[in-house]
Specification:
The protein has about 260 residues and is mainly α. The protein contains ten helices and no strands. This is Bidirectional sugar transporter SWEET.
Length: about 260
């Protein structure tokens, strides 16, 4: 049991490290927003939704909800702070219509998280509380991990990895795998099921990258819209609308993620 406990901690720490890289991936996007003092055609939808995932996962990891998941709370609490900063910056620089949309999503996020937290504290106890919070966190984790599916379809259709950065795919795989093993060692299905899903999707992204790595030119008419890929679309540097890409275009904000 001593060795299992040590491995459990090691994989949790590694998961925290790779998770941090994922949360910091959009900094290139926000550097551009701050520089131009405009959100241009960027979509603000992914950030409130990622914030909700972080809040629910951080809540689930608290000791009175589930045992031995403090590292889950650490990284997701950190992620919640980072995503809150992204949301605030976006709101400050977004046009009225997009600002109203993001503010509406933020209201939904706060209401959903508050509802889960209040119900779990005042209406539920023991295993029922853990199951309730675990299901809520797992659902949004699967949604977050599943968002690159449309991007993967675009890669297959265009036979180009222009819009699927290698390092982001790598850290999706590493993060998902780390938390999958962490969940297995801790015998926590709410951690290992959704992260196992993320690990598989990350591996598929890397396989696609290996197949199409020599083609990074892409067909410009096949650019996916930002909302098409959910949260991942924004993390990978897509913009909302028709004509502009962010971090992956060479003329501005070149980035390995």
């Amino acid at each position: 049991m001593g060795a299992v406990s040590i491995l459990h901690t090691v994989f949790g720490i590694f998961g925290d490290a790779t998770g941090l890289f994922l949360f910091l991936a959009p900094t290139i996007t926000f550097r551009r927003i701050l520089k131009n003092k405009s959100t241009e055609q960027f979509s603000g939808i992914p950030y409130p939704m990622t914030l909700l995932n972080c809040l629910l996962s951080a809540w689930y990891g608290l000791p009175f909800i589930s045992k031995n998941n403090t590292l889950v709370t650490v990284i997701n609490g950190t992620g919640a702070v980072i995503e809150s900063i992204y949301v605030l910056i976006f709101i400050l620089h977004a046009p009225k219509k997009e600002k109203a949309k993001v503010l509406g999503l933020v209201t939904f996020v706060l209401a959903a998280f508050s509802s889960v937290a209040l119900v779990s504290v005042f209406a539920l106890h023991g295993k029922t509380r853990r199951y309730f919070c675990g299901f809520a966190a797992a659902i949004f984790s699967v949604i977050m991990y599943g968002s690159p599916l449309s991007i993967m379809m675009t890669v297959i259709r265009t036979k180009s990895v222009e819009y699927m950065p290698f390092f982001l795919s790598l850290f999706v795989f590493l993060c998902g795998t780390s938390w999958f093993v962490f969940g297995l060692l801790g015998n926590d299905p709410f951690v290992y099921v959704c992260n196992g899903f993320g690990s598989v999707l990350g591996a598929l992204q890397l396989i696609l990258y290996a197949i199409y790595r020599k083609n990074k030119g892409g067909q410009k008419d096949d650019k996916p819209a930002a909302n098409e890929g959910g949260g991942s679309a924004m993390e990978m540097g897509f913009v909302n609308g028709k004509e502009k890409a962010t971090a992956e275009q060479p003329q501005q904000d070149n980035n390995g993620v």
